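QA checklist item 7 of 12: single-chain prediction sanity check.
[x] sequence parsed
[x] length recorded as 208
[x] structure emitted
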Amino acid sequence: MATGQRYGGRSAEERRAERRERLLAAGLELFGTRGYGNVSIESLCAATRLNPRYFYESFATREELLRAVYDRHMELLATAVAAALEDAPADPRGRVETGLRAFVETQLANARGARVTYLEIVGVSLDLERHRRAALRGFAQLIEREADLLAGSGALPQRDHALTAMALGGAVDGLLTDCFTSDDPPATEAIVTTLVDLFVAAFTAPAA
């Protein structure tokens, strides 16, 4: 049978892509509510009403699906922050607050993705941990680029911001992990204000 044959007006490639999207949606829902360790390939297939062979058409393992769900959520965060920064104020505090607010509010609005980000992907395997650490470094590099941009305009001291950015990225990760695992998490405004104060203090401090 030709791979390009159409059924219901859709090509084989379109149907394959649709099945993959259904699995990604099910992965986000189930990993983000039941937890990765409590979700089997069979339960993912049941949720999507797909034969198990269609799971393996898109993903070799559950771990591979978890990674794809994580990456999709990180793309959502990056898009939200980038869109917010397009219209951000030029001053350090205003720009920092705009970016951090977009990040925090997007996380809070997507609790399942946040659970995958801060809980479910952690410690699954060495390969996934390396992938997660690479994503954290990417977040730190975004912070560094923003600091360098502000320094270039004279709004921040000129210096190497790499280590500061890495420390701040870790602080965001640690604080939000604690918030998402707390029975009594702080208000969104308190989270944003705390992070903004931390970022501004770190980047405006005189060079050592």
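[x] summary fact logged: The chain has two domains: 1-59, 67-204.
[ ] second reviewer sign-off
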